[in-house]
Design goal:
This protein is mainly α and 129 residues long. Helices cover 89% and strands 0% of the residues. The protein has helices spanning 3-33, 38-65, 68-90, 96-128.
Length: 129
C-alpha cells in the first residue's frame, strides 16, 4: 500500500470521526439552548455532519489525484480558500472592512490549528522512533 493510499484512508477515517464529533457537539449545544424545535435541531445536526464530511472529502481528493507533496500544497491553498469563503459568507452584507477582519480571523485560526497539528505530529514521530 502506497503513502497516498495510507494518507487517503487516514483522511477518510479522521473525516468521519470529526464529522460525527462535530455533529454530536452541535446537537448537544442546540438542544441545551432550547431555542429550536426538535426537527430543526436534527436538521442542523445532519447538515453539520454533511458539511464536515464534504470538507474532508474535498481535501482527500487531491491525495488520490496528485503526488503527496503536491496534494499537501494544494490542500493548504484549498483550506485557506475555504476559510476565506466562510469568513466572507458569515458577514455577508457587512462593510468590506468587517468582512476582511472575519476572513483574517478564520485564516489565522486555521493556520494556528494546522501548526499545532504539525507540531503534534512531529512530537508523535519523535516518540514513536
Amino acid at each position: 500500500m502506497g503513502d497516498r493510499t495510507v494518507v487517503f484512508i487516514g483522511l477518510v477515517v479522521a473525516g468521519l470521526a470529526d464529522a460525527l464529533a462535530n455533529a454530536a457537539g452541535f446537537h448537544v449545544q442546540e438542544e441545551s439552548e432550547e431555542l429550536h424545535s426538535r426537527a430543526e435541531v436534527w436538521k442542523g445536526t445532519a447538515l453539520c455532519f454533511l458539511a464536515t464530511g464534504a470538507t474532508f472529502t474535498l481535501i482527500a481528493i487531491p491525495v488520490l489525484l496528485f503526488p503527496l507533496r503536491v496534494a499537501i500544497h494544494l490542500n493548504w491553498g484549498l483550506s485557506f480558500a475555504l476559510l476565506a469563503a466562510i469568513g466572507l459568507g458569515v458577514d455577508r452584507g457587512q462593510p468590506l472592512r468587517r468582512r476582511a477582519k472575519r476572513v483574517a480571523e478564520y485564516v489565522v485560526m486555521g493556520a494556528a490549528a494546522a501548526l499545532l497539528c504539525y507540531w503534534m505530529g512531529r512530537l508523535a514521530k519523535t516518540i514513536i522512533q
